[in-house]
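Weekly structure sync, notes
Attendees: PL (lead), two postdocs, one rotation student
Agenda item 3: pending single-chain targets
PL asked that the sequence for the first pending target be pasted directly into the notes so everyone works from the same version. It is reproduced below exactly as submitted, 57 residues in total.
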Amino acid sequence: MDIVDQIKGLAAGHEAEIEGAIDQVGDIVDEKTGGQYAAQVDQAQDFLKDQLGGVSQ
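Predicted structure, written out during the meeting:
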């Protein structure tokens, strides 16, 4: 079993909590940078959430 499969196994069933954490980290980054990188942070959040959607497959 490779590392990706191990991570998918750990994340399965916890998608809501992980999405919440992604949002919290994005908010912290926006706060610390004064929103200067808000577009990039939003893009990264969307990418991570899309990747999370593949966990349950």
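Discussion points:
- The CA atoms of residues 41 and 47 lie 10 Å apart.
- The chain has a mean pLDDT of 90.
Action: rotation student to compare against the earlier draft before next sync.
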